[in-house]
Design brief:
2 domains, elongated, 9 helices, Beta-Lactamase, single chain, Rev_trsase/Diguanyl_cyclase, about 40% helix, alpha+beta, Alpha-Beta Plaits
Amino acid sequence: MSSPRPPGGPPGAHLAVGPRVAAPLLPTRSFGVACELVLDHLRTVAPMGVWAVTRIVDNRQLFLTLRGDGYGIPAGAAVPFDETMCRTMAAGQTPRIAPDVEAVPRYAAVAAGAQVAVRAYVGTPIVVQDGLLFGTVCGYDPSPQPESLHELLPLLDLLSSLLSAVLDSDLRTTRMARELEAALREAEVDALTGLLNRRGWDRFVEHEEERFRRFGDTASVVILDLDNLKTVNDGLGHDAGDRYIRSAALALAAVVRDGDVLARLGGDEFGIIAVGATPDEAAELVRRAEAALVAAGVSGSFGHAPYSIVAGFPGAWKAADEAMYAQKRRRRGLPAVPG
């Protein structure tokens, strides 16, 4: 017997589309949102001191998203990957679930050297499409857990696969968005140097801030302030000053890497976002840029600082700016400004 149609309703209005589902099962294409939903669900089915999604980058394990207050780990915290339980888990050398880490010698050794108590561990890798390790989903507790914790394994398989799929989709979408923005940046150029102008720089930073936080990507901010521009302008004229600025722009453009963002921010100031660069790689970039400026007959003061998901680009800019002014004062033989 068919169900009666609601009075006044259109044909088919009585047909159910499907049951409403809980928030953790709602579809999403954002890796950050997916991480939050996965951790909320895991915390419900298996309460632990903390559940986390981490990123492995530059041999560090970076905590992107966390749930639980058992350890007080802040988002953005990082530890050496070699000193974590996730390293041997991801390599397939230790089990993904250890209700009592004392029963697994390698985990017990890591726990013995930790600054906090870890007696139970759960972990599963997150891989990108080419099979490389992106990070992990992991849980820690200061007390041993029942053996029934092993029942989580099928759920871990499912959730890590889902996160990997969402991650791949989000990375593809982000890559296409960045390609579109790169095309748009061509209209935001500085007329004198042909580099990105301040407006384009600000728009890039605004758009990329959330993406860098979502994926835990590495980057460094480099600032250059030219020396002697006023002297050149006053002594040789503004045309000579313009040539001085263009020489600096050409020297910088010759040393930045594909994917880096180089801009003239106004006057005698330039900025570089070295995408994916570690602090050591940023320092090497600065060394090459300094040599290129000298060869072009230009001098300037540099400062650089790493991006972090805690301080963001504003914090990296502030630190790089302070480092640049400290170098400028040293070059002029002036005393350091008290911190």
